[in-house]
Amino acid sequence: MVMSVLGMWQSTQRSVMESSHIRVCRFGDNMNNVAVTEGDKVEAQIKFGWEIDHYNVNDLAAYVDAVSDTEIKNLTDEYYSRYRILTEGRDDAEFRRHVEVQAGIEIGMEKFLEERDYHAIVTHFGMLGGLKQLPGLAIQRLMEKGYGFGGEGDWKTAAMVRLMKIMASNVKDAKGTSFMEDYTYNFVPGKEGILQAHMLEVCPSISEGDISIKVCPLSMGNREDPARLVFTSKTGAAVATSLIDLGNRFRLIINAVDCKKVEKPMPKLPVATAFWTPEPNLTVGAEAWILAGGAHHTAFSYDLSVEQMVDWADAMGIEAVVIDKNTDIRTFKNELRWNAVVYR
């Protein structure tokens, strides 16, 4: 027990040191009228050591365009050998061409990031420039390699995903860490929970069972149908975090969650998914999340504990609030009021 606690503490302290080296590359700005994906980048660098830079997406497109046909073919062949191919009635050659676009994006983006020493990626479906598709499969693969990711310009979540991947990197038999988003809710009594997904970008490190490639239409981005990896997640205890900027300080919201199997297969939902019930239950957990200002995006991990995330927030000198089996709304409201005084 003592060794386990010391090991988790060491992982957290290593992530504190590594936090000062995290560099986030933003292709495009944050989504219009969605302030929760934005924040004070200067204060983030002061508090966490993160460097958050911006590039025009056409800087990336130039790298993608320079990828050779041979490189694209080789990586696409790897995709076809590793994943199930679900053409679902599409022409085989046309399907492969869509997959090849993602191979080119993965190779080009990875070269761009490696040359400039970036560790986390931010994209925005409204700013795609010369890209033929919204990066989907490409982002999923890069996340699996250890990069952080945030959608719609969400650099805070991108950095947190990277940080949590670092923190979990020495976990034996790790179950995975990913970017995630609340997708829809199940209010059936006794079966309450939240279906987690995103329009494309969920890390396959959390998958259980087969991983498939699908090519499906996507209205966001106004580009051709993007290829993506589709799977369902593992089950078990996990933690979901949301880092928010309150204007005068940062707050880390930490929610213990229980990941479960979905009640029925969802073959027509062309995205990777997880299904969880927040502790202590959906009613209290969702209310507490809203009261704390939790965002729709989260950095999620099976391999980290609530205590580790609290320790990280303490080391950074920021507020942390926990939603778990002991959460009571009346007490939670008072905690938020007390914190407003302590962290002002």
What does this structure look like?
The structure is a single chain. The chain has 344 residues and is an alpha/beta fold. It is built from ten helices and 14 strands. A six-stranded antiparallel beta barrel has the order 6-7-12-11-10-13. A four-stranded parallel β-sheet has the order 2-1-4-5, with helices on both faces. The protein has a three-stranded mixed β-sheet with strand order 3-8-9. Strand 1 (23-27), helix 2 (41-48) and strand 2 (51-55) form a beta-alpha-beta unit. Helix 3 (57-65) crosses helix 5, helix 4 (69-82) packs across helix 5 (92-116) and helix 8 (282-292) packs parallel to helix 10 (329-342). The chain is globular, with a radius of gyration of 20 Å.
